[in-house]
Amino acid sequence: MSISVVYIGSSSACFELAGSNPYYAPEPFQVFLNEDLKFECDTNVFSLFDLKPQQRYLLKAVFSDRVEELEFETAYESCCLNVKDFGACGDGVHDDTSAIRMAVSYMPPKGRLLFPEGTYLTRPIVLKSHMTLDLQENATILGWRNREDYPICPGVLQDEFGREVYFGGFEGYAIPMYESLITGQYIEDVAIVGKGAVNGSGEEGGFWKGFREFPAARPRLMFFNRCKDVTLHGVLACNSPSWNLHPYYSENVRILDVKVQAPKVSPNTDAIDPESCDYVDIIGCRFSVGDDCIAIKSSKIELGQKLNKPADHHTIRNCLMEFGHGAVTLGSEIGAGVTNLSVSQCYFKKTDRGLRIKSRRGRGKNCYLNDVLFENIRMDGVLTPIAVNMWYNACDPDSESEYVWSRKALPVDERTPRMGSFCFRNLVCTDAEVAACYIDGLPESPIEKVVIEHVSISFAEDAKPGVPIMENFAKKRCRLGLYLDNVRHISVKDVSLQGVEGEALLTQHCETLETEDIRKG
């Protein structure tokens, strides 16, 4: 086993153990920095904070039978300024908005704005390029509780020459939205790091009730529009008005060792929703939210056809997902597609679905999902471990129309989505309830290829019926095996199913089927 560097900033660093164990290290170990014991750790990804810039350090990870060492040097910074020197109180009572905004505005390039212990009550703040926010332990940026004080920003404007300039959006449309608590617009080289928290006051601010009647889309906790080189490292994101972290048409985004929390009953509090982004790394994170843990998106058909910006080159590794609707979800706002996605060494606990892919007629011809790999994943108490759905029936005015639900092969046109190659490998799933795998393509646009190999799924003894995918006229299932419909090429090898009711493998409307060593107990 060896240690690799994931990220090094001026005041923080993130590391990863090599190996194959999902999320947790094979054994607890001690972390030393320059011979000083910093903490004990049991996860594959770990971090160090409160480091000094441009300084060399010796890292040691001490295991029961060996010691791993790594030397590293922190990055350059021009200065480190304390937000309290700009007038912030940090008492959770006084309004710190003006002080924080002034501090951000005045920061020199490559500067770090330090938030020491305290609670900083603020209205929305907008970041600029080449800066770092450093939230020290027990420091909290707390969102203002009065929704009327959140500005509404436009989704898209036309400039003096008729060119469109985009500023925001929600659920696949470029529409007006309340400004998010932390926002980046067209910036680069920005980081939010530390052991502190960003609390959106979602419940206290009245954002979770009656939101469909609001004059604009709810704010996100953090929103980054058309940004480059964005790093979120170590912070706790919680109590968001809606989605927590929303990178939007951005590139080179790193979300590392971050924790995202929301109550199970909170509406649309997805942890991370990268939308039409390129090169996104989500590594070593822990999520427990009220909706999807990670939902990869690329807008709906209008922007999917106009901008045609797919979600591309996403890596999700060594993460823990708990209590979400889906652990890792693709869609449903997926009008420009998803390509080159790798999800590995993750641990899913008590999510409704594990690997959740959702599309539907009407997402458009640019909605092409391809080169998707889910590998080396552990699931406990996940109702349906694998769910691939081309009949999704939510979030659209026509979701209950015959066009969406008709099982006839309809004409292929500008509105027809496509799915390419998917591989599910080395999965261990215990205490499933509804279905081991439910994959349902369109008759006029079948899924091209599905590979399922080296998979073990067992059902809970007290499994209860449920709906494996969200579709019109959905039937409840219980302990269903591997179900695949409208998939051209299927390969199923080395699969063990324990407690399944009925046939282990049910397929229809496929062209080729390869099976080897499917065991049912």
Descriptive notes:
The chain is mainly beta and 521 residues long. The protein folds into three domains: 3-73, Immunoglobulin-like; 77-290, 3 Solenoid (Pectate Lyase C-like), CATH 2.160.20; 292-521, Pectate Lyase C-like. The protein has three helices and 45 strands. The strands form seven sheets. The chain has a 23-stranded parallel sheet that branches. It is globular and about 65 Å long.
Structural class per helix/strand content?
Answer: mainly beta
| Distance between the first and last residues' Cα | 35 Å
Number of strand elements: 45
Total individual domains: 3
CATH architecture of the largest domain: 3 Solenoid
Offer a quick outline of the entry.
The protein has 521 residues and is mainly β. The chain has 3 domains: 3-73, Immunoglobulins (Immunoglobulin-like); 77-290, 3 Solenoid (Pectate Lyase C-like), CATH 2.160.20.10; 292-521, Single-stranded right-handed beta-helix, Pectin lyase-like (Pectate Lyase C-like).
Give the topology, please.
Layout: E1 3-8, E2 13-17, E3 24-33, E4 36-43, E5 45-48, E6 56-62, E7 67-73, E8 79-82, H1 97-106, E9 111-115, E10 118-122, E11 125-126, E12 131-135, E13 139-143, E14 152-153, E15 156-158, E16 164-166, E17 177-178, E18 182-185, E19 188-194, E20 197-199, E21 222-225, E22 228-233, E23 236-238, E24 245-248, E25 251-256, E26 259-261, E27 278-283, E28 286-288, E29 294-296, H2 301-306, E30 311-317, E31 320-322, E32 326-330, E33 338-344, E34 347-349, E35 353-358, E36 368-380, E37 384-389, H3 402-405, E38 418-419, E39 421-432, E40 435-440, E41 447-459, E42 480-485, E43 487-498, E44 505-508, E45 512-520
